[in-house]
Amino acid sequence: MNATGFGAANGKIILMGEHAVVYGEPAIALPFSAVQLSAEVTASQAWQIDSVYHQGLLADAPHHLENIKQLVQELAAAWHLTPLTIKITSTIPPERGMGSSAATAVAVTRALADAVGHALTTTELQKWVAIAEKIAHGNPSGIDAAATSGLNPIYFIKGEPLTAFPMNLSHGILVVADTGIKGQTRGAVKDVAHLFETTKKATAQAITTLGHLAKASREAILADDLDALGATMDQAQTLLKQLTVSNQSLDELVATAKVQGALGAKLTGGGRGGCMIALAPDQQTADKIQQALATKAAATWQFNLGGDTHEG
Ligand code: MEV
C-alpha cells in the first residue's frame, strides 16, 4: 500500500429530469468543473477525516460525514487498508443540489483506491459511492455519482449503462444561481414518494411527462435548438412545482431570469432551496440575467454549453 493517494470529483448540474429519474425516467446531467472537490490521503496512526468545505459551510452539521465514515469502513475492510488521514477540500457549495455529497464519496473512493494501487472501474466506483449516497439521500437514482465522477454530459437512466451524449449545441449559456438556502434532497425525494402514494394518478402523470421532457430536451440539444430546450425547461419547472420541490426563493429567481430574457429556467437538483439554472441565448443576455440574479442569490456562475465554465 502507498503512503499517499489522491482523488477528485466535479460538481454537477442536472439540466433535466431530477426526481423523475428516481422512478426510471431519463435525465440529463453535466459535470460542473467551476466547483470541485478533492481528497488526499496520507498514512496515519488512526483513521481521521479532516474537511474544508466551501466557505466553512457544514461546520454546523457535525454528522455530515457519517455516510463517508461508513463508506471508508467498508472500503478499508475490502482493500485491507491501514489507518489513513483523509483530507477533503471542496469549493462545491454543500447542500445546494450541486452534487457535494456524491463528489465527496467519489473523491474519497478514488483517493483510497490510489493509495492501495487499485484500478477502479466505473461500475465499481458507482457501487461504492451508492453506499454513502443511500445514507445521505435515502433513495438515490445514482445520477449524482455518475455526473460528478465523469468529464462529459450524461443521459442517465437508473440501472442502465451510461449513454454517451454529445452536447451538439453551438451556443447557449447556462446561468446558475444559488438561493443560499440549504436544499433538502432527502426530504424532497421522500415527499415525492409520499405524493406518489396519495395522489398516484396525477403524480405518475407528472413524472412521466418529466421523462418526455428530458427526451425532448435531448432532441433539442442534438438539433442545436436552444428555443426548444428553453421551452422544455419552463415546462419542467411547472411540473417540479406541482411535485412540491420548488420553493419561493427558487420561483423568484426563475421569474427574475425569465424577465431578463432567459429562454427557460428551472430549479436543478433536489430542490426546496439549492440552485436554479437559466438558459441564455448569448453572452450579453447571460450577463444581464447573471447581474439580476446576483442581487438576490448567494452566488452565481456561468456555464458555457459550447465548452468553458467560469465563476461570476
Ligand atoms: C438530486 O441531485 C437528484 C434527485 O433526482 C435525486 C436522485 O436522483 O438521486 C432529486
List keywords for this structure.
312 residues; alpha+beta; Ribosomal Protein S5, domain 2; Alpha-Beta Plaits; 2 domains; 6-stranded mixed sheet; 5-stranded antiparallel sheet; globular; disordered C terminus; binds (R)-mevalonate; ATP binding; Ribosomal_Su5_D2-typ_SF; transferase; lipid metabolism
Can you tell me about this structure?
- There is one protein chain.
- This protein is α+β, with helices and mostly antiparallel strands and 312 residues long.
- It has 2 domains: 4-164, Ribosomal Protein S5, domain 2, CATH 3.30.230; 173-304, 2-Layer Sandwich (Alpha-Beta Plaits).
- Helix content is 42%, strand content 23%.
- The protein has helices at 66-79, 100-116, 122-137, 143-149, 185-198, 200-222, 226-242, 248-259, 283-294, and strands at 4-16, 27-43, 48-52, 84-90, 154-156, 163-164, 173-178, 264-268, 275-280, 299-304, 309-311.
- Strands 1, 2, 3, 4, 5 and 6 form a 6-stranded mixed beta sheet that branches. A 5-stranded antiparallel beta sheet has the order 8-9-7-10-11.
- A hairpin with a 6-residue loop joins strand 5 (154-156) and strand 6.
- The protein starts with a strand and ends with a strand.
- Mean pLDDT is 93; it is low at 308-312.
- Bound molecules: (R)-mevalonate.
- (R)-mevalonate is lined by residues 14, 18-19, 21-22, 97, 137, 140-141, 143-144, 185, 189, 269-270.
